[in-house]
Amino acid sequence: MVQMMRQFLYKVLPEDSYKAATGKLHVSLTRFTDGESVVVSEYTSKEELIEALYCSCFVPVYCGLIPPTYRGVRYIDGGFTGMQPCSFWTDSITISTFSGQQDICPRDCPAIFHDFRMFNCSFQFSLENIARMTHALFPPDLLMTRAAITAPADVPAKRWVVSSIRGAKSRRASTAPAW
């Protein structure tokens, strides 16, 4: 699956994509040798950008035994040391595929308030999140995935993102530290 993602990125990203990503796309990695969290945002080529993304998706054993390299150093998924590597007072938007307290994330049943923190990220304990984790580790086949993504009954993504960003800004303003 991760190898398919890598091939897809080589196919669709323009040769100068690293220029647009440099300084804007921060990729969280975990250095394999010592478990240290590393965030990269400077890329010198399309190849280097894709290698950083490839390392950020690599889950040991599940994806293979030998981690990939970025700039000659072996890295694994940054989620092992921090799924949200930025601080709460920085000017950034937190995004997660799991429901919790991130700025942009799925909103599950509001009656369930059991959140827990793991890998510097908030997770809501819910059946929907369990299903999301299952699909992350054991994805459905590509035809089912494509049908779900292109289904006409889906809520328009633009409206969802805009409302999430507005909510994030108001939450950030109310929780910003007073210096």
TrEMBL record:
<dbReference type="InterPro" id="IPR002641">
    <property type="entry name" value="PNPLA_dom"/>
</dbReference>
<protein>
    <submittedName>
        <fullName>Patatin-like phospholipase domain-containing protein 1</fullName>
    </submittedName>
</protein>
<dbReference type="Pfam" id="PF01734">
    <property type="entry name" value="Patatin"/>
</dbReference>
<keyword id="KW-0443">Lipid metabolism</keyword>
<dbReference type="GO" id="GO:0005737">
    <property type="term" value="C:cytoplasm"/>
</dbReference>
<feature type="short sequence motif" description="DGA/G">
    <location>
        <begin position="77"/>
        <end position="79"/>
    </location>
</feature>
<dbReference type="GO" id="GO:0016020">
    <property type="term" value="C:membrane"/>
</dbReference>
<feature type="domain" description="PNPLA">
    <location>
        <begin position="1"/>
        <end position="90"/>
    </location>
</feature>
<dbReference type="InterPro" id="IPR016035">
    <property type="entry name" value="Acyl_Trfase/lysoPLipase"/>
</dbReference>
<dbReference type="GO" id="GO:0055088">
    <property type="term" value="P:lipid homeostasis"/>
</dbReference>
<dbReference type="InterPro" id="IPR033562">
    <property type="entry name" value="PLPL"/>
</dbReference>
<dbReference type="GO" id="GO:0005811">
    <property type="term" value="C:lipid droplet"/>
</dbReference>
<dbReference type="GO" id="GO:0019433">
    <property type="term" value="P:triglyceride catabolic process"/>
</dbReference>
<dbReference type="GO" id="GO:0004806">
    <property type="term" value="F:triacylglycerol lipase activity"/>
</dbReference>
